[in-house]
Amino acid sequence: MSKMIVGNWKMNGSVKLVxxxxxxxxxxxxxxxxxxxxxxxxxxxxxxxxxxxDCSVFGDFGAHTGEISAKMLADVGCKYVxxxxxxxxxxxxxxxxxxxxxxxxxxxxxxMTAILCVDENYxxxxxxxxxxxxxxxxxxxxxxxxxxxxxxxxxxPSPDDINxxxxxxxxHINNVKTLYxxxxxxxxxxxxxxxxxxxxxxxxxxSLNLYDINTMASYS
Length: 220
Ligand code: PEP
Hints:
With 220 residues, the protein is α/β, with parallel strands linked by helices. The chain has a single domain (4-218), classed as Alpha-Beta Barrel (TIM Barrel). Helices cover 37% and strands 17% of the residues. Strands 1-2-3-4-5-6-7-8 form an 8-stranded parallel barrel, surrounded by 4 helices. The structure holds phosphoenolpyruvate.
């Protein structure tokens, strides 16, 4: 079975770039778009596998200015939601363990798949409440191991170290699917994809380049 290739555009992109990806993206790639582009991309190419980069703690509709619920994301064709990214946890302080648990429930209830990001201190985030929930939803939740020291730095841990962490996570949570994220690019993709306990990759910066992300997909 081929491995998952997930892109995360973060707060980048434009209608022009979305159009380029709609026309040429390898079908296997799951692309984490800024929410403002999701409905547009889905309407223009319903086959595209789209991820959101967050969702609200609030479940469906209501008086919550500026929020976007999992129900609304599902309605516009989103199939995946990235949750708990370290940039959200560190900079915005909004993704506490309690909030992440609420968001995971909302994603699963709306029949999407959550891609939960954890860092070097993964045991802190995978506390009892979150682990218990994931254990009962291993088909709907994927864990992306993203060491903070590797995000956007070009410095990645050794394949052995990555493998050890992914193995620990799988031992802790019933063989949950795991991705590695942090400075993945066309040069290191084959090495990362060959890590035994990895089920794929989460790619940040390099996912903004259509040729690069398609090249990475071609190795999976
Ligand atoms: C990320 O932030 O999820 C990420 C993997 O970033 P990059 O690939 O740019 O290191």
